[in-house]
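Researcher: Let's run the pair from yesterday's discussion. Sequence first, then tokens, for each.
Model: Starting with the first of the pair.
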Amino acid sequence: MPTPITTERVRFPSGSNTLVGDLYRPVDAAEVGPAVVVTGSWTTVKEQMAGLYARRLAAEGLSTLAFDFTGYGQSQGELRDLEDPAQKAADIAAAVGYLTTRADVDAGRIGALAVCASSGYTAANAADDPRVASIAFVAPWLHDPELVKPYYGGDEGVAARLRAGEAARAGYEATGEVDYVPAVSSTDELAAMFGPWDYYLNPDRGAIPEWGGRFAVMAWPGWLTYDAVSVASRLTQPVQIVHSHEGAVPEGTERFYAQLSGPKDIVWTEGEQFDFYDQPAQVDAAIDAVRAHFERTL
């Protein structure tokens, strides 16, 4: 049976901003024990898949922290809803740092769980952050500038988005105005994710009031040129991956996994990318593997 959990609203600094998170703890947690930072897909807030996985892991006996990145949700940040890989990696470091200050967390037993796009940010931080003792990725989106092209219309589609991003950045620097497009749309081809993606369009799933649902156009260059795959060779922590060949960028996961030099395991299961965000079969399979991994390594 799942363990009852408690929820604590927490705040901690990342640079000059204050981030807001939810700390979940099993009611029967040890006085001092391990904890895991949990992060979700790009553009999202803590109440979406990050919060779901954080609660599920807490019910399995682990303290967890889900939080809003800089400029998202309830966290501070002048630029709102800007997908900034470097800033998000720094925010993960700040979340890890916060956990080390808590009297109920063993600072030598901190893990990180990333779902989808935050996998790259989590890996980037962990490569330089020895405080992260163990890592798990669920349905990771791990791309480099070549792997990303088929998902955005090939060379032409990527070039168009890069131009739009550069123009939006110039406009912001000239006027202070941020150009946004929908994060997801089934009708607007300029949306960051164009298609009938039910998770983000369905209020019973991810289309919740807390989510901004928009994408700052000037984020395109940083996203499209990001290289999450090459980071793998610098990771030394134990790594668990759960993914599906029907999910996002499986080629990136395969290359990433091949470059890992430390203890590693990968579970290939079934399901489309968005199934891993909230569907019981995929979430249950992921939680089983992730829980066992952290029990072994934290």
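Model: Moving on to the second of the pair.
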Amino acid sequence: MKKQQYLEITPFTLAVVSEQDENGRYIAKVLEEEAEYVLEAKPTNVIDYACKYFGASLKGRQEGTREISGITHKAPITIDPASGMYFFPTKSPSNANCSWIAHSHIKEVRREEEGKTSVLFKNGSKISLDISHGSLINQLQRTAQIRFLLDDRIKRWRKPPHSEDDKDS
């Protein structure tokens, strides 16, 4: 795996996982449907870069989540709602050991030993995370909620306005 500074997060990105390199620095392992990349940046910085690529900062996306849903801590975000990229953090984003998981790629969540949970993705790959099963399920549900609320708002604005002729039919 080649080390890079940043990489575009796409609809094919499964997760941005926090790992420590041989010097103890936190780096990001980006899991794609058919590839893996190691980036010399913390996962939250990779997510912030991806948000900015689509016109908003991570902080702006978090504020949007708070405004729409009231979720304030470990807020799930959309990187780009048009392409269905919704991610949730496994810990506080200020924690260097925070990983980010793409909501749309999760097939199953399994309880492991105390404090760990495995995520099975639709493509068959699997990761083990330092997060309790209950906490991960909660993050999944919160992401589904923000996804529904934001998608609903977007759909409402895409509907064509009713003309005066429509009222008579």
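Researcher: Give me one sentence on the second I can quote.
Model: The chain has one domain: 3-152.
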